Amino acid sequence: MNRIVGVIPARWGSTRFPGKSLAPIMGKPLIEWVIARVRQAQRLDDVLVATDDERIFKHVSRLGASVVMTGSHHQSGTDRIAEAVQGVPGDVIVNIQGDEPLIDPQLIDQLAEVMVADPLLEMATAARPITDSEELKLPSVVKVVWDGSQRALYFSRSVIPYVRNADAAGKHPLHWCHIGIYAYRRDFLEKFVHTPPTILERVESLEQLRALHLGAKIMVVSTDQHGVGVDTPEDVARVEALLRRIGS
Questions:
Q1: CA separation (Å) from 86 to 2, 76, 133?
Q2: pLDDT at residue 174 in the model
Q3: CA angle 110, 114, 118 (to 5 degrees)
Q4: Which class in CATH covers the domain with range 1-99?
């Protein structure tokens, strides 16, 4: 039996938007929107928030949601969730971004399902097609390529693959944007956080390259969902407009 736990990292000290977890989105703190969406997933046996701040802890507690206080020293959300799930029963841990109020519950379920279906997988993540040539050039848009079994070969901020012969691709999408949601086998998560960052991880600033360095089998689930994150105060208005459009 696979017990699946969804964890939402929510730290206070965001460089570009401190305290964004409690920033109001249409009158409701961002973290509330995220929790509500995650709770719609059908394959999660438990959902908890992992935070380093008492203000976030108290607010989430008042909502009646599970929340764990973690250290403030963590360099990534992965490190934070690894601490948060200590003592929490779970075979598969799903790391869900705490700044995406429109996260797709079905995508969460898809990641959970591929992990259950293939016990040899250490990780699963997601990607969407890139159709805009300007977006393709952005280093902030992480690209991923995979093999014939849809297992990740590499992630990069550079454009991969390089297109020398466009005709060879036919109508198949060539470039895919990595979406930052991960499902981990619990034992691999422990191995991951106890391994120092690797050279490729440091130069690209992409922690998933540590997993590839360790030889992890990472399934990439393809999706049309773009993922809408709140990274800066300016993103609030854009997200509110999307929420009004879908009637949330």
A1: 17, 16, 43
A2: 92
A3: 170
A4: alpha beta
